[in-house]
Specification:
Blueprint lengths: L2 H19 L3 H14 L5 H16 L3 H11 L5 H15 L30 E2 L8 E2 L15 H19 L1
Antiparallel strand pairs: 1-2
Helix pairs in contact: 1-2, 2-3, 3-4, 3-5, 4-5
Keywords: Membrane, Transmembrane, Transmembrane helix
Protein name: Tetratricopeptide repeat protein
């Protein structure tokens, strides 16, 4: 590979890897595909680019492309890369587990323009196993007692007297 191609490869590889780490899968795929064209399949570096590309495909929802790429890498000359490709292929082809609805948190859609209105935060508490969830009423902050109960001053004076007594006795 020429010096110019090496520089291009490094640039595409670094941008693609960074994009993958940041969750920008389309940009990652585009850059890693460009990097893959500049390096040979049988090299260790070429295999590394293709493993990252398979990961980007899978993250972007292109499962078939990821599977095809991993299957291609299972015939790589390097034993370690073949094993890694088989492991990744096994993970990609694993069945997706179903999660019970109570494990999920629903995120409300705030794009409806009601962001300026004051909203109360409510919490849910679980009742017994057979009863449904019950929403707690919103808390009115004007009714909360914020008066100082003098406990801090009592604790501070007690601590000073204790430390003073220990110093005086020693």
């Amino acid at each position: 590979m020429s010096q110019k191609n090496q520089e291009k490869f490094r640039e595409f590889y670094q941008i693609g890897k960074k994009a993958l780490e940041n969750g920008k899968y389309r940009a990652s795929i585009a850059n890693l595909e460009s990097a893959r064209e500049l390096v040979g399949f049988s090299t260790k570096l070429g295999a590394e680019v293709q493993m990252l590309l398979a990961t980007a495909y899978q993250a972007a929802g292109k499962k078939q492309e990821a599977i095809a790429l991993c299957q291609e890498l299972t015939s790589h000359p390097n034993l370690l890369i073949r094993q890694k490709a088989k492991d990744v292929l096994y993970i990609i082809q694993a069945p997706e587990l179903q999660r019970p609805p109570e494990w999920m948190s629903e995120i409300p859609d705030l794009s409806s323009g009601e962001q300026n209105k004051a909203q109360y935060i409510t919490t849910k508490r679980k009742k017994t196993q057979n009863k449904k969830d019950e929403e707690l009423p919103p808390i009115d902050l004007s009714q909360v007692n914020t008066e100082d109960n003098q406990f801090i001053w009592f604790a501070l004076i007690l601590a000073v007297l204790t430390i003073g007594g220990l110093i005086w006795l020693s």
